[in-house]
Amino acid sequence: MFDNNVFKENTCINVSENGQITGFELQTNITYYRGIPMSMIEYIRVAVDGVEVPSESIRISVDQQDWFTLKEAETVTTYKWEYGEPLYIRVMQEGGLSKGHHKVRLTVATRTAYIPVPLEGIKERDVVIE
């Protein structure tokens, strides 16, 4: 139902710091009709070419300034992921994604005030890293 909001098209890119590729990044939209604090993100999973990345390697941000591990985000109530604004997901992986074609699957689940179970969205895309 919410899968079209997950994994914004053409957002999967390698990221670098000080000239070194330190990982890759993608964006998602919220799978709900309104904003939530980051602490209401139930889980985020990323798989590349059928291999799930460790959750400890995932960082998230609403502003690309302050980044949180998924464990840290469990207590982050002062940053709100607003409807219509992307959540930036960064996978810390030396060298990022290799050049060429990859199948990247993103799973995002959030908790909400009115629904007793997490809302989950899954989207897999073919991406090309140049």
Short structural summary:
By secondary structure, this protein is mainly beta. The protein has one helix at 70-73; strands spanning 13-17, 20-28, 36-37, 41-48, 51-52, 58-61, 68-69, 80-81, 87-92, 100-110, 119-129.
Describe the protein's architecture and organization.
The protein is mostly beta strands and 130 residues long. It has a single domain (3-129), classed as Sandwich (Immunoglobulin-like). The protein contains 1 helix and 11 strands. The chain has a 5-stranded antiparallel beta sheet. The chain has a 4-stranded antiparallel beta sheet with strand order 5-4-10-11, with no helix packed on it. Strands 3-8 form a two-stranded antiparallel sheet. Strand 10 and strand 11 form a beta hairpin. The radius of gyration is 14 Å and the shape is globular.
Supply database-style keywords:
130 residues; 3% helix; 1 helix; globular
How much of the sequence lies in strands comes to: over 45%
| Percent in helix | under 10%
What form results from the Cα inertia axes?
A: globular
Query: Spatial order of the strands in the main sheet?
Result: 1-2-9-6-7
Number of helices: 1
Number of domains: 1
Q: Describe the biggest sheet?
A: 5 strands, antiparallel
Per CATH, what is the topology?
Answer: Immunoglobulin-like
Mean pLDDT: 94
Number of E-state strands? 11
Order of helices and strands: EEEEEEEHEEEE
CATH class: Mainly Beta
